[in-house]
Amino acid sequence: MNQHHESTGPADEQQITLRGPAELADALPYLMGFHPDDSVIMVALHGGRGRFGGRLRLGIPQSPQEWAPVAEQLAECLIKGSERRGERPDAIVIFLCQDPAEGESGSRVMERLRPFAQRLRTACGGLDVPVLEALCISDGRYWSYCCPDERCCPAEGNQLAMPGTSVMAAAAAYAGIQVRGTLREMEARLAPLTTSAAAGQQRALDSAGAELVPKLLDEEGREDVARDTLDLARQLMKRLGEAPVTTPSASDIGDDRLISHDEAAAVILGLQDRETRDRAAEWMEGPEAASALRLWRALSRRCVAPYEEHAAAPLTLAGWVSWSTGDEPGARVALGLALRIDPRYTFAQLLHEACNQGLDPETLRRCLRGERSVRAGRRGHRPDRSARPRTARPAATRRRRSPSGSARPESAATRRRSGQGTPGRRVAQDDG
User: What is the radius of gyration, based on Cα positions, of the chain?
Assistant: First the structure.
């Protein structure tokens, strides 16, 4: 039975001691900010007292043939990532979370995933970092793959604690930490519409594409589209900001009703231009951040088939605003979905890495504020739009951009031919 410590504040404040598998299992939603489902989670531990460090989440691969290479990728990603942040893990804790399929028991899930747990333990051990605990959580129960003592870890598993009754739950409530439901519920808020409205949205995207894509390929037309896109987005943000906020599901339904198919299509297509998207990222703080986040979520839901790949831009913006306003779990979910759609979407890659490394978003906020100020100054000195040069950007940012964020739209077929959909992409996409 191992003890682990999670600090809820600075080092001189009270620390929480987690005693054994039961309290580790109960702490998981508070570590992630949501209830992970169908997930493998790896958490780095540091120091002799097992202080929690970096954490990594990935959907459990369906095929057992993927388990060995995925285990090696995950172990390397967590350990090497921790080293880049300056502290190699002293140990790792693993969680495998999956609900039973129809006719399957939680115990059966545990046994089915046991080889995967062993692969993960071996991969970590191969990099000289031991796995201190590996738990399976399924059907409201938990099992330890490491503890052989049936007195505390019986074959039928142990019941999870009632929500809100543990030491970790009390400490999380005191610290203001919220658990935002399940991962599946969080992803559903950003998923494309599947209702009868999807057909109308598809037709609107078809029409907008026929009108806007030729303009995006022309320099002057591109500037016109950018201006119109941002103006319309501001109008929609104002409209959403004036609407009442209720429960998440009711709010999403209300937001969808406030945006027409044609309006959604025009902004979605306009955001495929990288510089327009970067301008939209400036709505990141203050009163406009909340309405911007509602808009980006709504536009992500409007990227219906066959336009799913267009959601990378609004999903990344949703992730950025979430991170900028302190919602790291929401940011990781949105950015993970963006990278699932387009693993080479550079803006999402950079934000995802920065968020997972615990960097301060203020650095990027200062950069965006500076660009807005520079642009405002140039607008005052250059009334002739055709003579106005584009806003200068940091050289490092320019070098790291990929074609996925360019103004020239790419079809799904083009991306598939370029080899963007690689099997190993999931390690980067889902680090929740």
Answer: 23
Q: How far is CA 345 from the centre of its chain?
A: 13
**Three-state DSSP class for 3?**
strand
- d(Cα 261, Cα 247) in Å, to the nearest integer? 23
Mean pLDDT over residues 232-249, rounded? 89
**Chain centroid to CA 374:** 31
Strand-pair category, 131-138 with 91-97: parallel
H/E element, 86: none
DSSP letters along 155-208, please?
TT-EEPPPTT-SHHHHHHHHHT----SBHHHHHHTTSPP-STHHHHHHHHHHHH
The Cα-based distances of 344 to 82, 128, 133, 172, 350 in angstroms read 22, 31, 34, 36, 10
Single-letter amino acid code for the residue at 420: Q
DSSP single-letter state for residue 259:
S
Question: Which is it for the CA torsion 410, 412, 416, 417, positive or negative?
Answer: negative
* Residue 41 scores a pLDDT above 90: yes
> How many CB atoms are closer than 10 A to CB 263?
19
Q: Distance (Å, rounded) from C-alpha 399 to C-alpha 421?
A: 23
* DSSP-assigned states of every residue in 267-284: HHHHTTSHHHHHHHTT--
Which residue's entry shows tokens 């747990």? Answer: 117
CA atoms within 13 A on the CB side of 246: 8
Backbone angles phi, psi at 5, to 5 degrees: -120, 135
- Of 119, 134, 2, 12, nearest to 65 by C-alpha is 119
Position 367 confidence tier, pLDDT thresholds 50, 70, 90: very high
Residue 25 has pLDDT above 90, yes or no: no
Nearest to 93 by CA among 73, 111, 74, 110: 74
pLDDT by residue (tens digit) across 328-337? 889 999 999 9
Q: What is the C-alpha separation between 413 and 116, in angstroms, rounded?
A: 34
Q: What is the model's pLDDT at position 9?
A: 33
Q: Locate tokens 């599947």: which residue?
A: 194
Q: What pairing do the DSSP bridges indicate for beta strands 91-97 and 158-159?
A: unpaired
Helix residue spans in 325-392 (DSSP H): 328-341, 346-356, 362-381
Confidence of residue 237 (pLDDT cuts 50, 70, 90): very high
Mean pLDDT of all residues in 16-40: 81
> Would you call 419 exposed, middle or buried from its count of C-beta atoms within 10 A (0-12, 13-18, 19+)?
exposed
Report strand pairing: 51-59 vs 91-97. unpaired
Q: Whose CA is closest to 53, among 359, 351, 358? A: 358
